[in-house]
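Preliminary data (for renewal application), XIL complex.
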Amino acid sequence: MLPASLVTSLTSKADIGLENAIPLRQRTTTSGVRYGCASAAPSVQPDITLLDKIRTEANIFVPEGSLKWIVTEPQPGQFDFLQGDSIAVFARRNGMLVHGHTLVWHAAIPTWVSQLVAPASARMALGRHIGTLVSRYKGLIWAWDVVNEAIEPDDGIDYGYRNSPWYHCLGADYIDLAFRLARDADSKPPLCLSEYGLEYQTLASKRRRSALLSLLRHLRTQGTPIDCLALQSHLSADQVLDQDGLTSFLRQVVALGYRLAITELDVNDAKIPGTIEARDRIVEAHVSDYLDLVFSVARPISIATWGLSDRYTWLRQYYSRDDGTALRPLPLDVNLRRKPMWSALARFISAP
Ligand code: XIL
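Predicted structure:
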């Protein structure tokens, strides 16, 4: 049986209004800002009610793990597209595009990739992988996260490069190489460099913004074919946005000619005390403030959340609340009902 508080909230007039409101997907036509959400492949997680909400709300499907290297090329040259193709079929059937996530990352790689040492073998592996994935889903891809999480200022390398297996084998040129390989395989979709941890007043955020900006500048002077900075946007409702620092960073990024996309939005409410209603309002306000800031610099090409419903969130693997209640980081609750965060998205996605 549902708890009384939930029953009340489900039947309130405001909630009925919210449930009847125009889906995000339809709002994307007025603003040109597409809406996407990450999810497992339908073949892996055949949650029919969730899939129904995904096709109603989103026009981009973001494979949460299905296109990662460990899934798509577990052994050298042996590709596995069962999951990717299940997403492709779902997307095509429902008139959606797919956000390609992700070609080059230090995580979710099979052992054979993490053991690459010789530059020639690494270059060969990168070429085969990028060429195969990009070609396979040509025409269906909205944008590609070509390189994911390239910086880690704590690693102490120039331009803040992360000491990833790719950097280890190929040095600083691996980013340029990856983008050129992707561009050669498909000239159409925007190619993104995706990064996290840029939003707050913390020293870590400041260092990450500064490293990323110098890297983006450097890549521009090299002519690397990057179109877009993908702001992962894993937010934490208990932290304070750096209004000035983040605005100035984004302005400089845009001035360099990069477009912006918001690609993995969610809001960690592990440290927000209070009732569910109060927490949801704080999450909504945090998302509104963040989107306000980004839109004040440039309208992003798309907004994607890292999941659609609180039913499935990666944050649960790493965070929990002291009061034992579940995290509420996404636009729909566990019963697939729209939350205040959904309204914040709706306002920005409908912006004329
Ligand atoms: C996460 C997935 O959501 C988890 O299910 C998985 O266990 C680990 O990866 N940044 C990224 C995403 O670019 O690929 C990550 O996805 C979340 C952080």
